[in-house]
Amino acid sequence: MVKQIVKDVFFLGQKSEKATKDDMQVITDLKDTLKANRDHCVGMAANMIGYKKRIIIVSMGGMDVVMVNPVILQKAQPYDTEEGCLSLDGVRKTKRYKKIRVQYLDEAFKQHTQEYAGYIAQIIQHECDHLEGTVI
Hints:
Blueprint: H1 9-12, H2 24-36, E1 43-45, E2 55-60, E3 63-85, E4 88-105, E5 111-117, H3 118-131
Antiparallel strand pairs: 1-2, 2-3, 3-4, 4-5
């Protein structure tokens, strides 16, 4: 189901809880909501649609990748940038890393450890910030 984007900074500022297999509806709602906002959105965290669960979705070219309970294990090559967010107006300055290594569960709850670079790495970092209650 397509969900409304949460803009409540107090809600967004709270840490998300570990996701379980009972949270499959959250994954479905994230997919539907990203699809509905694809023209101006490349990633989403579950709290952006009202769920305080550690689930993100990232548009990676022709496919959307769901990451359940993602953890950034390594970061390399810091840089300063500006980002926007569907939950906030305007853009804000932030620090990101060009290369990251992430451990996560996929939709089937199979574990993966993957390295990402560039823009995809930036999106993942932004969405993982949401899970920690960090609002840029």
